[in-house]
UniProtKB/TrEMBL annotation:
The protein's name: ABC transporter permease
Species this chain originates from: Halomonas urmiana
Assigned protein family: Belongs to the binding-protein-dependent transport system permease family.
PANTHER family xrefs: ABC TRANSPORTER PERMEASE PROTEIN, OLIGOPEPTIDE TRANSPORT SYSTEM PERMEASE PROTEIN APPC
Gene3D superfamilies listed in its UniProt record: MetI-like
Amino acid sequence: MSTVTQRLNDDWRRFIDSDLFYSFRRSPITIVAFVVVVTLILAAIFAPWIAPHDPFDVSTLSLLNSELPPAWVAGGDPAFLLGTDGQGRDVLSALLYGARISILVGLASVAFAMTLGVCLGLLAAYVGGTVDALIMRIADVMISFPPILVALLINGVARGVLPPEMQHDAVIFVLILAIGLTTWVQYARTVRGSTLVEKNREYVLAARVIGLRSRSIMAKHILPNVIGPILVVATVNLAIAILIEAALSFLGVGMPPTEPSLGTLIRIGNEFLFSGVWWVVIFPSAVLVLLVLSVNLLGDWLRDALNPKLR
């Protein structure tokens, strides 16, 4: 057996025997939430292979198939399990592709916000003084406004700066930037508080004595010891990022109808709600609620499992 395989086996056994995995096994709700999140993520990743139809291929759409109810309702077509929308687009296929975009934007914006917030939080706490005051005052200003308003402002500025021919291609990057810049404050504050405690411990003082650079101390010594709270914030913020993206798309400043996310699908379906075509809005809303609820449940479990006071 190679050294790498042996190390992986040792790490796996250590994880199986850990308090974290024990807490996970003892929580049926967390297991269900984990299964739901993994299932939705896998379905989104493999959407091109498991979707019955390609909702973005205009040549396959037919108005003769528009507003068909789900297959189990009278008048439904077995070829369209969850029915179709006003353009004849398969709702199930649109859901798979829409969830793909929503999850992608959520994960990318969380990664961006976490990177920015962790770096600024470490810098503020370790350097202190004017740098700390400046970063924290910026954080205070950011947190005083609702995230959706800040995201709308950033989105509007980006659309005004970019030339019209680039706006369509850059919309997903603008969403990631807008959501990331509204959620980095929690990471910065969490990391700053933990770093203020850790930087005065013996192992950090010893690292300074032997001449390690501040960047190395922050990255290799302090950061691994504050990673627990960061993971909790990231899990909770994933649900918030997905909701912000859905809200922006619902308001018409997010993903376009040609590449819909869950929020865009809800906005499109809302126009048909009072005409009796309920399935166009109900199913995307249900998937969004299920995804956000499951991620929040995982975040609540992770917060309790990593809290030493509850062990």
